[in-house]
Every structure is written in C-alpha cells, then in structure tokens.
Design a protein that fits this description.
Order of helices and strands: EEEHEHHEHEEEEEHHEEHEEHEHHEHEEE
Helix content: 25-40%
Structural class: alpha/beta
CATH class of the largest domain: Alpha Beta
Number of domains: 2
Strand content: 25-35%
Distance between the termini: 25 Å
Bound molecules: zinc ion
Number of helices: 11
Number of strands: 19
Shape: globular
Largest sheet: 8 strands, mixed
C-alpha cells in the first residue's frame, strides 16, 4: 500500500513567508498523520480535500510559533466542518496549556487528546505505523520524527501444511510470533512467516542543527524531509540559532542513505530558494524543494516508485 505526503507549507518563522509555514500530512490507510501546524495550515489542508472527519494524529516538533500556532484555527475549521472523531496531538511540554485554554472557551464538538513528551519515545498507532521521537538539537525542547510503516508478515499456508501444522490455535500462535512444539519438533515463526518488503520510512528533522544521532536512527529512509533554513554562506547565523544549512541537510541525507532528500523550512531571506537546492546537490544528488501544494507518493514495491506532483 502506498504512502502519500502532502506539503501545506515549507517556509520558516515569518507568517508572511512566501512558502507558508511548516506543515505536512502523511496519508496512509485512510488515516492522516500531520507534522507541525504553522499559521494558515487549515487553508492548505482544505485545498488538498483530504476530508475533515478522518482519523487524525498531529505531531508537533517544538513550541516555536511557526510550528504550532496553526493548531487552534485548524481545530476550529474541523469543528465548523462537523468533525465528530477525536483528534490526537503529540508534542513537547506546554502544548496542552495552549490548546486547552482555547477548548475551554469554545466547544468543538469532538474530543482532543494531548500527550506531551519530554523524552524520546516510540509510539504505535493502530498497529499500522510506528513513530519515533528523536531529540533534536535546537533552542527549545524539540523532536525529529521517524514515521515507519508496520508490515505484517504473511502466513505461508503451503509451508505450514508441509510441516504438518493443522489449522487452528497452533497456527495462530506462530502468527503471534510464538514458537511451538509439534511432534517433538520445534517450529519457529520464521519457518512459516514470509518476509515482506522493507517498510516505508519517512523522516522529518523538525528544526535542528545537523544531528548525526538522527542520521544513525534514520538509516535507509525512503524520504528525509530536512530543514535547510540557511545557505552555507550564512552558516554562522545557522549555528547561532541551532539550525541547519542546505549543505548540512545533504550530508545528513548521505549518512542515512535516503532515497530522496526533501528540503524544508527555508528562511525568508532567500528570494530564490533554488540556491539551497543547488548547494545541497553538490553533496547529494537526489534532492527536491518542498513547496505548498506538493504531493509525493511512495509505492511500497521493490524497487520503490516515487511520484511527485504539484497539486496547486
Ligand atoms: Zn521553525
Ligand atoms: Zn524553531
């Protein structure tokens, strides 16, 4: 099953950024996984026509305004669109204060669950997806995220028959990952479960200095969405504010051996963001610039197929 990524905004800091503020959506098996939610997010979200009442999980990298101040207006838009399903929001401490003070004033008509994390965490959602929170190197408590598809191994009926395993509880135990003993013979799950293709992995750096810890955890990512706030000529500014340059993003991409590097979170100081792409390309060839309206589809086959479209 394919994974789709929709970019709502890809600029940094200023709400007047021509690239809008950070925010993108991963759609997988009918659920929406939203990463960061800058001001104006709800307008772009509506343009993608993804539906207002889908299972929804928001992940906020850190509490700098450009990454979370779009949550309240987004919840309001969902409410006006008669949402009934709950919304789950995850992020660093302080998030619930911002959201609940607003919810108390306005009735939304659906539930909002908020989970704050201080530390690194791995969560599973519906046994479909695993999301790792990796501490980023930034000026506030900030996370990078690794979104990974959970693939179930397929039960090989022919192998099970050849081994004489009857349908029923013994087969169910093997599917659950338990080893069984049949006629004094030990049978392991791997004897009857077929290995599937590599799960799809999407990595998002959030705001961070180049972080080689993230690179080591994000090995073989299909897509690395990495901040590239500055160009190398402004590297002092980048490190002063704990951000990355386009060159840094490319070097992390090289380290992770990602299939595609997507640049993200550009400073508004660059009239022409192509210079960031050109800079990154000197170190890593498979680079694209994210922009509002961009959609990337990744098919789960082997070899992977990437389809890149501009929806608006
Ligand atoms: Zn930012
Ligand atoms: Zn920041």
């Amino acid at each position: 099953m394919s994974v789709e990524i929709f970019f709502a905004g890809s600029g940094a800091a200023s709400p007047f950024s021509r690239n809008e503020l950070p925010g993108f959506i991963i759609r997988y098996k009918g659920s929406l996984y939203i990463f960061d939610c800058g001001e104006g997010f709800q307008k772009k979200f509506s343009r993608f026509k993804l539906g207002f009442n889908k299972p929804m999980y928001l992940f906020i990298s850190h509490l700098h305004g450009d990454h979370y101040l779009g949550i309240r207006p987004f919840l309001q838009t969902l409410s006006l669109s008669q949402r009934s399903l709950p919304v789950f929001i995850y992020g660093p401490p302080g998030l619930s204060e911002y959201i609940f003070s607003y919810i108390l004033k306005d009735k939304l008509g659906f539930r909002v669950y908020i989970k704050e994390f201080w530390e690194e965490k791995i969560i599973r959602i519906n046994n479909d997806v695993r999301i790792s929170f990796v501490r980023a190197v930034h000026t506030s408590t900030a996370f990078s995220f690794i979104w990974t598809q959970i693939k179930r191994k397929r039960f090989d009926v022919k192998k099970a028959e050849a081994l004489g395993i009857p349908p029923g509880p013994l087969r169910r135990k093997l599917v659950r990952g338990e080893t069984i003993v049949l006629n004094n013979r030990v049978i392991k799950p791997d004897d009857v479960l077929l290995d599937n293709l590599k799960p799809i992995k999407v990595v998002y750096s959030g705001d961070t200095m180049p972080n080689y810890r993230l690179a080591s955890k994000a090995r073989d990512a299909d897509i690395l969405i990495h901040e590239s706030t500055y160009s190398t000529e402004d590297y002092l500014k980048a490190y002063d504010t704990l951000h990355s340059t386009a060159k840094d993003a490319a070097q992390i991409a090289k380290k992770t051996k990602t299939s595609l590097l997507v640049l993200f979170h550009y400073s508004n100081r660059y009239e022409n963001i192509r210079i960031l792409e050109q800079e990154a390309k000197k170190y890593f060839s498979r680079v694209i610039l994210s922009k509002p309206g961009l959609k990337i589809t990744i098919s789960g086959g082997n070899p992977r197929l990437f389809v890149i479209e501009e929806l608006f």
